[in-house]
Amino acid sequence: MNQEIQITKLPSQRQQQQELPLPPEDGTIVKDHTSQDEQQQAAQGRHGAVQGGGHHHHHHRSSSKLTVLPLIFLIYFEVAGGPYGSERAVRAAGPLFTLLGFLVFPFAWGVPESLVTAELSAALPGNGGFVRWADLAFGPLAGSLLGTWKYLSCVINIAAYPALVADYLGRVIPAVAAGTGGRTRTGTVVGMTLFLSFVNYTGLSIVGWGAVVLGLVSLAPFVLMTGIAVPKMRPRRWTVQVEGSKDWRLFFNTLFWNLNYWDSASTMAGEVERPERTFPRAMAVAVVLIAASYLLPLMAATGATDAPPDTWANGYLADAAGIIGGPWLKYWIEAGAILSSVGMFEAQLSSGAFQLLGMAELGLLPAVFARRATLSRTPWVAIAASTAVTLAVSFLSFDDVVATANFLYSLGTLLEFAAFLWLRARQPDLKRPYRVPLPLPALAAMCAVPSAFLAYVCVVAGWRVFALAGGLTALGVGLHGAMRLCRAKRWLRFEGQQGQGDHAAAPAHTV
To answer: Is the pTM for the entire model greater than 0.90?
Structure first.
């Protein structure tokens, strides 16, 4: 019975209570004669107690919560944002393998992770997402380490988007092109990063509905290109082979980079209207939308043009659109690439910032990261910190950025799947408003397929990626130890240190 009582709090919250002789808040003591259902309700209530930053979260108007349509497009931009950046897969392995990859991978990989995200976001609907899952399953160290891996992967990915925009602008403005190393390119990347971070500060509902507009405008030219290309397609073009051997590492890294982060929206679960209904619906629509947004334009571009695979570099889809539909379509897709990168930047920055907020609410980071702006209710300290980290890694080479982000993400997702299966096995009675309708052995098999690919991504990483990921992992472990020391010595303020209600009243500040 004692074991059952202990699970009514996340481990990091239990740890805070063990360290400090605090009086229990009303309703937190579950007596032995309490029914299992009542214990479960108590657990769910406490998971929600820190949702969105506690009681001050209730100042949100209902209209500021994310609904299905904005969440669909936030997921779309967190995962994909359109086929931009997929060109290197054609260069690495040829059209046929690229089409097969973008046909199979969204479902073999995206569906399992989407189901895991939908179930656990509904069961533990607070900000922080996957950090909460690992924290509840394996304890604070696991939650902190998973948070480190996923957060660093997120900000490394974010750093790639201004550089990707600069690649497209470089086709029109040579001074901004890759390899120039000039002040114009540097200023473009830094200026764009700072401006887009400020937009993120203005509010999550603005970012969400902005994602809807950006998504529709950036997808429209690909719909037109596909329609125009249909009579020009020749299936034989899909079988063209690359010269020499295929670069499988680049192929799978590109495929993976374009189709991961299905779980990123979970970090904003505390900002979603009725997550138990909204998440499953949004995930289902997003899987189909994302698969089509890659497959159809790539079929059109590879089937209606005669360009050999070695001409497929970042930005080539715009050239293919010019061949298929004319200069106007090329320019629209180049503009769409910029809009898409803006959408991806905003969606992933929101995810990373709300992850830090959730970790602060759990006591894994100092309480300052839980601070919200008075008007927009955005976690402004977390946004500023994420912007600084993004700028710090903005000038790594694009391939290094992709490979390192993929490696860290793979480690985190393996731990995430383990937490999902562990919670199903050890806490079967945890209230799950949405539940994947499969028994535990089938769930293990479902997770095995993407896990095998995750293991492959880790194995094929180069030595520089191994070294960097190992160093960052050690940094994550050290950070967790440092946070425990700071909490014990009271060098920094953490949620729950000065009484159980404190996390519910985290101060909101303006810049």
So the answer is: no
